């Protein structure tokens, strides 16, 4: 496997971009057959290289659970491609729209058209899924696409570049290099749409750069996603599901439950149950192949700092395994860690954790939990556990988040018919399934005048015609 991504110099990137723009402006939009062919080739990029992708991603992480790459990357992509392939004909069909009364008889249609050239900037945490899932929507909508992978996943980036180039013309779908100067220049290219998945901090920079070109952006950002445990919840069940949601990809998941709010009297019992579930799922051996490493030493040290800060400020640290085993660090695996009785002043409650560290906080009432969530940035995801439907509906009505899974974690993300996207600081816009097709299309309203309608009545000389029409409309409204 070639570990170093072949570099695409900045000048060459700009030339490729210009060539894509030219073709998108001078050639007819790709028809259904051409788009289905592109989706089939994208599927083949994944299917023909699955094992190589697993290994490349694992090399980037130090160790990435092969099963987790399957569950969260390749399976997701197959499901999205299958859905788009089946639905594309109906998505592409012009939609009939009712005509406003006074313009009858006439026809309205909403016609989807490709925007042109779409840019995708992706993070390292699910590098295959987060580069290609937006590309599925963009290609289905008939666009040309350029992908900029993360510099923290160089093995993956090199492999993606090679395998995409083997199946796509450079003016259909292109993967850039990962040099710093490419990242910065990329967001300044006048794309017809730009998708950025990554941190809120870099998202601001990307939105600023895109704004200078009036390039519309979809920002898929991060943040602190809460899990609320209602008094009516089955603690054992909630503990199992939260342990899984948190430890998948060792917590390096944008929608991982970042912290848990638990009724005060259940705090200790719940934390113990999560610890037991973590131990049951991932054991105590750092060499466990199911448990993924932290992406870099810098990220590892940041997590150590968060735990040390919480301990120093008086939180109780609970771990399913002995954390002083040097093999944790030598495998760059972070021992799963619960921070019991975390408080808002701790660093772990002030930044997105993005690792297998779970603060558990006591709440006095459901209203207290809702107020805690609402005092912070709007999260990317929210999880609610319990059996009391009225309490559930109250929490759903009173909080705003990118998405919600009730009585589990993560799964709203994997629904092909639902939009995926954040709100406020956790993002803007959405994709997946038809939502992606629409994001990457210009939905063009077209009004077809009929020879029978009396629109000429609106033209001058006005005389008393408009006054009569206004009277009629007032009467009918
Ligand atoms: N909402 C989602 O769907 C989603 C999914 C995965 C990850 N995330 C978030 O991503 C973050 C982790 O990923 P990360 O560490 O790779 O994020 P990051 O913001 O550091 O980097 C993301 C991408 O932006 C590029 N980049 C960096 N500086 C840039 C600049 N000035 N201009 C243009 N591009 C630039 C990077 O090279 C990388 O490709 C977390 O906050 C996580 O929550 C969100």
Structural class: alpha/beta
Shape designation: globular
Q: What is the first-to-last residue Cα distance?
A: 69 Å
Major sheet summary line: 7 strands, mixed
Number of β-strand runs: 16
**Number of DSSP helical runs:** 16
From the alpha-carbon coordinates, what is the Rg to the nearest angstrom?
Answer: 25 Å
Mean pLDDT: 95
Q: Roughly how much helix do the residues carry, as a percent range?
A: 40-55%
Distinct ligands, ions and cofactors found in the model: nicotinamide-adenine-dinucleotide
Read across the widest sheet, the strand sequence of neighbours is 10-11-12-9-8-13-14
Strand content: 15-25%
Which stretches are low in confidence, meaning pLDDT under 50 for 5 or more residues running? Answer: 1-5
Protein name: Aldehyde dehydrogenase
Keywords: NAD, Oxidoreductase
GO molecular function, one term: aldehyde dehydrogenase (NAD+) activity
Active site: 220, 254
Layout of secondary structure:
Layout: H1 10-26, H2 32-47, H3 50-61, H4 66-92, E1 95-97, E2 106-114, E3 117-121, H5 127-140, E4 144-148, H6 154-167, E5 173-175, H7 180-186, E6 193-197, H8 200-212, E7 217-220, E8 226-229, H9 235-247, E9 259-263, H10 267-282, H11 297-312, E10 316-318, H12 326-330, E11 337-340, E12 357-363, H13 366-374, E13 381-385, H14 389-398, E14 403-406, E15 427-428, H15 433-439, E16 441-449, H16 465-476
Parallel strand pairs: 3-4, 3-6, 4-5, 6-7, 8-9, 8-13, 9-12, 11-12, 13-14
Antiparallel strand pairs: 1-2, 2-16, 7-15, 10-11
Bound molecules: nicotinamide-adenine-dinucleotide.
Nicotinamide-adenine-dinucleotide is lined by residues 121-125, 130, 148, 150-151, 183-184, 186-187, 197-199, 202, 205-206, 220-222, 254, 352, 354, 380, 422, 427.
Active site: 220, 254
Protein name: Aldehyde dehydrogenase
GO molecular function: aldehyde dehydrogenase (NAD+) activity
